[in-house]
Backbone:
């Protein structure tokens, strides 16, 4: 983890809790002191220093995370260095969309905008409380967990015909009360309350499903 500000420290702490070996780099001792008993290794230094980075196991790391605040030039330089040093997966906190485009051109595998992503997730969950989880798996497709709309209760999956009526594919069906999950449920399966649909589709198709009552 290059940069141990609020986002970097929170991410490093969770990665460590998940059982990952985490090395944190930051110029400020106080930031490292706050997590030194949580992560595997805390290094005081400049995350844009090529010589320092050369002494880290960049090439052998599963992922390199870069969160260097609002200083665009520093995150660009750090990204350039770690890619040249053989990093396999580079995730960088972006500042602006233009910054993100440059990071992508430098080889960043993913650019994240934490505030924007959290705001979108919160807005979506507030707007569509029946959507329980949302997982983008492709630029076009996402997987969503959604409670069965009232208008579909009592119908079978074949009668609901979500593939043709909405455009989504049903991957699974979870019965909350019985604690049972069916993968690729049959068309004769009846939809009732306390069931959760696991579906895949494009954004516009999922939007139609979310808007069903």
Residues:
């Amino acid at each position: 983890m290059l940069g141990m500000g609020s986002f970097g420290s929170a991410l490093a702490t969770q990665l460590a809790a998940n059982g990952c070996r985490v090395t944190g780099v930051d110029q400020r001792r106080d930031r490292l002191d706050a997590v030194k008993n949580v992560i595997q290794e805390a290094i005081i230094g400049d995350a844009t220093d090529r010589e320092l980075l050369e002494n880290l196991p960049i090439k052998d790391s599963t992922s390199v995370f870069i969160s260097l605040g609002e200083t665009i030039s520093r995150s660009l330089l750090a990204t350039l260095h770690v890619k040249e040093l053989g990093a396999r997966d580079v995730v960088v906190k972006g500042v602006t969309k233009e910054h993100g485009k440059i990071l992508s051109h430098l080889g960043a595998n993913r650019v994240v905008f934490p505030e924007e992503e959290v705001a979108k997730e919160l807005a979506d969950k507030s707007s569509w409380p029946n959507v329980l989880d949302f997982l983008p798996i492709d630029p076009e497709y996402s997987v969503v967990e959604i409670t069965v709309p009232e208008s579909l209760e009592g119908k079978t999956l074949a009668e609901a015909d979500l593939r043709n009526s909405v455009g989504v594919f049903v991957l699974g069906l979870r019965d909350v009360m019985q604690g049972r999950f069916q993968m690729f449920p049959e068309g004769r399966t009846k939809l009732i309350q306390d069931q959760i649909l696991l579906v895949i589709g494009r954004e516009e198709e999922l939007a139609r499903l979310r808007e069903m009552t």
